[in-house]
Each structure stands twice: as C-alpha cells, then as structure tokens.
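Both lines are given unchanged directly below:

***
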Amino acid sequence: MTDPDPFPNAALPSRRQLLGAVAAAALVPSSAKARNRTVSRDRWDVIVVGAGVFGAWAAWNLQRRGKRVLLADAWGVGHNRSSSGGETRLIRTEYAGNALYTRWAWESLAEWHALGRRHEARLFHKTGALYLYPQDSAQIDRSIAMQRALGIPIDRLAAPHMAKRWPQIDFSGIAVGVMQPTMGALMARNSVQALVGDFVKAGGSFRQFAIDPPRGSLSVLDTVTGTGGEALRAEQFVFACGPWLPKLFPDVVGSRIVPTRQDVFFFAPAPGDVRFDGAHLPAWVDVSSKDLHYGFPDIEARGFKIALDAHGPRFDPDGSDRRITDQALADVRAYLAHRFPDLARRPLADSRVCQYENTDNGHLLIDRHPAWANAWIVGGGSGHGFKHGPAVGRYVADLALGTGAAVPDLMLAAHRPHG
C-alpha cells in the first residue's frame, strides 16, 4: 500500500513552490508544528526506525512472520553517514571464545549467502579472515575448540608458515595466526539495499522519514512524529538508529552509547601488483598493534583498506565534517611501514570518516524501552555488529513477538552509564 496522495486532483507544485514551502516550514515554531500535527490514517503492526543492517533485518524478519511493517529512515537505505554505509565489513567467527557472537556470526553467514544468491550479486567475498596474535594463549585454544565444535573451518598457523604463505606481510612480533578460510568481506551498502529491496518487493513499505525524539505519558507508545509534524501510528516500534540513539533517547541510552570518529584509508597498490587483492591476501586483524589495526585486500578495485579499531574522539554524526587529518594519515603510514612495507609510500586512493557507536561494555544493546512496553531499542553494533545483522533481526523479531528470551548481556541493565 502506498501513502495517500497529499495533492489529490491538483497540479504538481513547481520547484519554486516546493522551495518556498520548505523555507516556510523551517520558520514554524515547534509548538505550532505540534498544533498542526497530522496523524496518518494508516496503522502499522510495526514501525522500524532506521534502515541500517539491524533495522533492515528486523523489518525483514517481522514481515516474514506476517506483520505489516513500515521501515523508515531519515536519509535513505545505506546512506553514507550511517554505520551500515560504505563498502566492506568483516565477517569472522574469531571472538576470543564468546559463544553468542561466534554462533551468531556463523548462523548469519548462511543468510548473507542466501541474500547474494537471491540477487545473483557478489555481496560476499570469501577472502578468508586472518587474526594475528603476538603470543599463544589458552584463550585462543578455547576459541578454536568452540568454533570446531560448531563445524566452523579454522586453522592455527605458526609465524614461519604465514611468512611463507603471505610474504607481502611482515610478521615480526607475531607468534600465531588464526585463519578462518570461509570468512571474508561483506559489501555493506549493497547488501542492505538489496535486503530492503527484497522487503519492499515482498509487500513491506519503506519511507524516508525523520522523527523527533519520541514522547509519551502512557506505558505504550502510540505514534512517532516526524520533524515536519506528521505522526505515524503502530502497535509496536523498533528503534535501530545507530549513533542517533543517544539523541533520540537521552535519558535511556544517554552515554551508554558514545559515537566516536573512525578514520578509514584506501591505498593504491603498484600497477599490476596483485599481491594485495582478494585472491592473494585475506582480510586481517592485527591484535598485536596498540590500536588494533584491521583491513581488507583490494576488493572491487577500491584499494587496500586499513582502519583502527581503537575508539577515536567523540563524534557528532550530524554536524561533524568527515575529513581525515594529516596526523591520522602519517600514523597509518607508519604502521604500514612496519607490517605492509611495500604499501607504506603508495598513494592514498581514497578515505572516509565514519563512526563507531560502541557501548560502554562492548556488547550490543538490545532491550525493551523501560517506559514503553511496545518499543525496542537496538544498537551498539559499530565495530563488530554488521556481520550479525541476520541473527540480530531474528532475535529482535522473537523479542517483539514474545517468542524468544532476552540475553542478559545485551539488556540495558548490563550497560552502565559513563562517568
């Protein structure tokens, strides 16, 4: 079903009229907007706010269970300021023995494969995922044993073996590697857009719609109001708004999620040098580096990607410019000189500034809103959440429909506000 025509039996407004209307709306006080609020005649079973990876998979799963679902996003699916925008995201099952995230990543991989098959598109590149550890440990043993028990292919590699297999990497300071040959790179924006396309094709609705922070005095939430004054009604709501969650729910989420600035770099290998493409180099995570560098081989001719997992400074996803700094570029070149020396002086082919929305304890935050029994908050995924999208969507649908049990580590009570 489409939204009713706001201009029935009328000529379409001109560009000048539209610009005038926008300018006039910007001058309307918020109190006047509230008085002039229009409430949609439609009432949805579920409105999912946020069309990133968590919101898209939640909407998909809820729709497949017979719910009438509206998926809304302020800027569009996979937009470049979202945590699900951009190109590549790592999928790996090496989680230092954490059973939940290991299992969720493994289960999600099958659904990512299915999405790619539906679209006959390469949404996943099986480059393998290589973890580099400075020393061996019992924790690595436990993690490998857990993955093998789940049927996940995994190899433990000594530094001399890795140096022979990947001579383009300097393995000094590395004692052991954990290689996951069936893992690799998910194409982030393309995957989310493909999934939302499936959702709409199957009868779901998508709308570009920016909401004000929800308010209500009852134990249930009835509507969400857009910045233009229109209100949308639903039986249940899922807010999967990434780094915007603290702005929407300052009292509930607040400093439990702090968006941080993260710089990403793409370097151009030498002409004809295939050593750094996906056929000759895995995606990798260097646990030995102070800032936990990680990266991807040259995929789809974008360049060799490298980033830091260490949390950057606080970052406003709305008002901050997204330009890398000279110091950040110098720092990453210094790391390349140590670990990937043949790339240290290669040209910077591209760069982007994104954000993490990690929580205070590193876990995802998925829980019912404490005041509204029919509203769910889903976030905290940046840094490691994208890969889990299918499992998170299924988990959220189970919670919303009352068919699943909550995981204590993911609940609001497990997250303490920052001091």
